[in-house]
Amino acid sequence: AVNVVDTAVGRIIKACGEAGADLLITADHGNIEKMINDDGSPMTAHTTNKVPFYYIGDQSLKLREGGRLADIAPTMLKLLNIPQPDEMTGASLLV
After folding, report:
1. In this structure, what are the phi and psi dihedrals at residue 24, rounded to the nearest 5 degrees?
2. Are 5 and 25 within 8 A, CB to CB?
3. Residues 6+ apart with CB under 8 A from 71
4. What is the C-alpha to C-alpha distance for residues 15 and 75, in angstroms, rounded to an integer?
5. Residue of 67, 64, 61, 75 lying closest to 24 (CA atoms)
6. pLDDT score at 2
7. How far, in Å, CA of 67 to CA of 60, rounded?
8. 36 by DSSP, 3-state: which?
9. Residue 6 has pLDDT above 70, yes or no
10. What pLDDT, on a 0 to 100 scale, did the predictor assign at position 78?
11. DSSP string, 45-81
């Protein structure tokens, strides 16, 4: 399964590069580190472990260290040159 996902992500990255498009890759939570509870049942709760956030696009743009889930939407808005609504509590990860 990992090989299939890796191949698919590679194709997406290539297509975005050819189209001149920016690409963000992330997840809302981990779980790979613990998929089964001690009693053998599936682990379905969110973990607090860090999750990668990748930006692939204009090489002059960099991501700051740290961040949280609430920072993803402001990052997307900044890439799209759309003003961030006051209601959003996150901050763009772009530096």
Report:
1. -115, 130
2. no
3. 90, 91, 92, 93
4. 21
5. 75
6. 83
7. 20
8. strand
9. yes
10. 95
11. SPP-S----EEES-TT--BPS---GGGHHHHHHHHTT
**pLDDT tens per residue, range 25-83:** 998 776 677 788 899 998 887 777 788 899 999 888 899 998 988 999 999 999 999 99
Residue 45: φ, ψ to 5°: -80, 150
d(CA 26, CA 64) in angstroms, rounded, equals 15
Q: Do residues 90 and 70 make contact, with C-beta atoms less than 8 angstroms apart?
A: yes
CB 78 within 8 A of CB 92: yes
3-state SS assignment for residue 24: strand
Residue 47 pLDDT: 75
User: Tokens 């900044």 appear where?
Assistant: 78
